[in-house]
GspH/FimT family pseudopilin (Geopseudomonas aromaticivorans), 189 residues
Amino acid sequence: MCVAGSEARGFTLMELLVVLVIAGLAASLIGPGFQRMLPGVGLETEARTLAAMLRHARSQAILSGQPVSIGEDAESGGLRLSYREAPYIPRKGIEVKLEGGPASGDLGSGAAQILFFPPGDSSGGSLTLKMGDDKSRVIQVDWLSGRVLRTTEEAQAQLKMEREKVEKARARDKERRRDRTPEMFNEEY
């Protein structure tokens, strides 16, 4: 109850309705944008999970003293670790492609694999995760160190171009050194 002449505290019904309408409009605008972000979050989560699985496989090879392989499982469409019974099945809508490194060999069926050896090195290789046409992640396994790195296909292409430039520069430098005569070398120094 309100006594005549006293100040009333609180909100009117009209003020509450205006706030609810504004909040509803904001939610309707933010919702679709948030849903567009969710597939990318799912792809990133899957990439982190697979990178952790590869790191675990490397650790298992070091601890057990036995090589550990990761290969494609034809029956399930997932990935199979040599020391596990059940294959790893990626999330629905995510395509995983495994490429073995230079020393990976095959599983007998011609399927690619990545091997981790007891000293910690590996055969090298990569896992490419794709979701639709526009989103992808690459997990690269270094053959020398066995290190597992996550990146994108665009970054992989950029890195490949930079490596090619370095190789071309090395080849040019080697060619220049080969063409030098002893007299030219003495003149330089």
